[in-house]
Q: What sequence folds into this?
């Protein structure tokens, strides 16, 4: 989030193209980028798209940035980028409202010149632009779920192997199933960006004979087939600003077991799908137990159509409209 702005600005200048609009990721320090291109971007409208943000991201205790006190600075980059943008897009309603609600307390952490009045300006320019996904690409690999051919369900994990996805809580629930004598198979998809976490190693030892996939699948087709084969998507994340991997499992007919927080209620209405939402880890264990013992897992989840609007076939028109509006903001 530091040097990239300078590097990308140099590449932008070298292209020599006058663009109708610029969209930047939240991982770019937009203020530095624009300051390097004062002449080239003086009339160009600029938007920032928040896929995540550093104000609310749960830092791992092992993260070196936390120990060095750099986490606050990353959050300020997000704030200043939003302040510099003409339009601010968030990938979910949850993300937009939580970011805006967190800003005042974040600014109050500074001793003076807190600029709390800027929050209203950011709020005025903020809107939700739901994440577009190629869900239909998964359809080419559709196959029957396990319920058609097995007497035990396949539980899937398809997230990063990192702290914010709470794998420790996930495995605690699985061990609870084992203690009750409930049988299941497990697909541990995804990858870690550091050394293999010890709780994954422990799971390999304790659940080894039940694990059908351990780690990243090399081909998209293999990943898609496992999602279609899977029956239960057990989610324990501490943070998800949208939850792309969760939406993929819902689209493929997995029964989601979701914490009643974060972005997940944006995808399914908890009051209508109470059997899919939990408040505590014990409740998650109970819901998963009931789903398996009742045999309800044998039929695909009936709410898969509720995430169809995220497919690009439905989102392209919305994105085009937003970009047209952004381009109309060109400065005279």
A:
């Amino acid at each position: 989030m530091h040097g990239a702005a300078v590097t990308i600005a140099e590449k932008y200048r070298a292209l020599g193209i006058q663009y109708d609009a610029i969209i930047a990721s939240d991982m770019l320090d937009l203020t530095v980028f624009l300051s390097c291109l004062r002449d080239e971007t003086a009339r160009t409208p600029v938007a920032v798209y928040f896929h995540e943000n550093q104000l609310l991201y749960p830092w791992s205790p092992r993260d070196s940035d936390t120990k060095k006190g750099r986490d606050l600075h990353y959050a300020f980059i997000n704030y200043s980028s939003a302040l510099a943008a003409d339009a601010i897009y968030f990938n979910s309603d949850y993300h937009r409202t939580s970011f805006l609600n967190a800003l005042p307390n974040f600014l109050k952490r500074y001793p003076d010149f807190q600029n709390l009045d800027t929050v209203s300006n950011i709020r005025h320019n903020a809107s939700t632009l739901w994440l577009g996904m190629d869900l239909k690409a998964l359809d080419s690999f559709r196959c029957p779920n396990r319920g058609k051919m097995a007497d035990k369900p396949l539980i899937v994990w398809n997230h990063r192997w990192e702290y914010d996805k709470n794998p420790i809580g996930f495995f605690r629930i699985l061990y609870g199933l084992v203690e009750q004598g409930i049988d299941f198979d497990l697909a541990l998809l995804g990858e870690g960006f550091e050394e293999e976490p010890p709780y994954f190693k422990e799971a390999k030892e304790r659940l080894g004979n039940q694990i059908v996939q351990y780690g990243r699948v090399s081909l998209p087709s293999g990943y898609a087939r496992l999602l279609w084969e899977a029956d239960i998507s057990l989610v324990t994340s501490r943070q998800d600003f949208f939850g792309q991997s969760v939406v993929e499992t819902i689209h493929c007919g997995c029964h989601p077991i979701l914490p009643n927080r974060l972005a997940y209620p944006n995808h399914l209405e908890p009051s209508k799908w109470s059997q899919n939402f939990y408040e505590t880890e014990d409740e998650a264990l109970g819901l998963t137990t009931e789903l398996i013992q009742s045999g309800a897992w044998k039929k695909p989840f009936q709410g898969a159509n509720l995430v169809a609007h995220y497919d690009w076939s439905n989102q392209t028109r919305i994105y085009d409209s937003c970009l047209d509006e952004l381009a109309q903001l060109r400065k005279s």
In short: The CA atoms of residues 132 and 310 lie 5 Å apart. The chain has a mean pLDDT of 93.
